[in-house]
Amino acid sequence: MKCSNIYLVKTVSSKTGEGEVPHDIQDKxxxxxSDVLDPGDMDNVVSEEYDDSEYMFFRLSKMKVMRICSILExxxxxxxxxxxxxxxxxxxxxxxxxxxxxxxxxxxxxxRLDVADVDDILDKINNKGIENIDEIDKIILSK
Length: 143
Prior knowledge:
The protein is an alpha+beta fold and 143 residues long. Helix content is 47%, strand content 19%.
């Protein structure tokens, strides 16, 4: 069963006192995170580095995301935000630079197709106007 929310973990800075986390620590973090994930979970994770921050989007249970955050916590300062509702509403200004990336667009579009309903799209039309709906919104409206 797919998770009904998307969580954004955005790294802010390294706690190591250096500009970025050293490669050996990065490898350790990745190994520990892979231990948390089940087979198939990587289909529900996308990440991108931008302006010295890592943007990691997880469509996983909150428990798994919290476990991943506990792995990151000793090494990096980060923000954790639930962004599923923002994605459905088209309020992605904080990460619009990523939305145009094909991998991310597919990730977000699949999420919207799985989770959004007609009421969500009608709310979007009321708030932003009908000229702001896209092909995914039209597919949802035709369900």
